[in-house]
Design a protein that fits this description.
It is globular, with a radius of gyration of 18 Å. The longest helix has 11 residues, at 123-133. The protein has 6 helices and 17 strands. By secondary structure, it is an alpha+beta fold. The strands form 3 sheets. Strands 1-17-2-9-4-5-6-7 form an 8-stranded mixed β-sheet, with helices on one face. Strands 10, 11, 12, 13, 14, 15 and 16 form a 7-stranded antiparallel β-sheet that branches. A two-stranded antiparallel sheet has the order 3-8. 15% of the residues lie in helices and 39% in strands. The structure holds zinc ion.
Amino acid sequence: MALAAVLAAGCAPSAKTRAAGKNGKPAQITLDDALVQFSLVSALAAGDYVGDTPLADLLASGDFGVGTFSHLDGEMIVLDGKIYQALADGTVRAADLNGTTPFAAVTFFSEDGQITIPAANSLEELEEQLDRQLPRHGAPYAIRIDAEFPTLTLRSVRPVYSAREPLVDVVKDQITWEHEQLRGTLVGLRYPGWIDTLNVAGYHWHFVSYDRTIGGHVLACEFERGQVRFDECSTLVIHVPQSKAFEETGAGDVKKQDIEKIERQRTPRARP
Ligand SMILES: [Zn+2]
């Protein structure tokens, strides 16, 4: 990827003035602490589902994250340097690294701290507790939660091979599964509100079970004990797609409300 926009989460250091970092030393943009994003969620929302990023390139940018596959063929879970594909039939497989992604974000997960959360009756409650305990509200985070979940509702979407169909319509046909007493890992990213239409503000969770047979995008869950680890990302890198499809998407016309509908369509009782 030749084109990359680099946005520092705090102050963007210029050639002349660099923001003071920890220890009073100049803050350097270190890509090993970056959250690296391929394409924009607005491009996905506008129907650019094919993608030109090889999955091998994705793993070169991080070992932890979420995304989707070419033609929206399943939910992507990147965990411990492996890419899992949770398909619309409910199965999970190791992704073919020759495939591509139209949208994903990854980082090299390096733990900055842990959070103690005794229990949460819903995903929203879990997120509220994280909001209270994460050190900074203005920074993006990668969050890894290993636990046994009393209940867990997952979704995946059917692949889209036809001409463009807006993502808001695709997710209306999402397939959902409810599980009980499931052990596994929540792979989460949290973006602050300033992300606007580049990604989805708030939390985005995918799940894969310990035995790697069950996975998907998380719509709801209950949580009881488990290990909650976070990695604060100091830099955001956005790879701009080179494809003709991206040029034609009209990603700039996508509204924030449409993007929120896509990722927040959690359960009928979930917050709007
Ligand atoms: Zn998702």
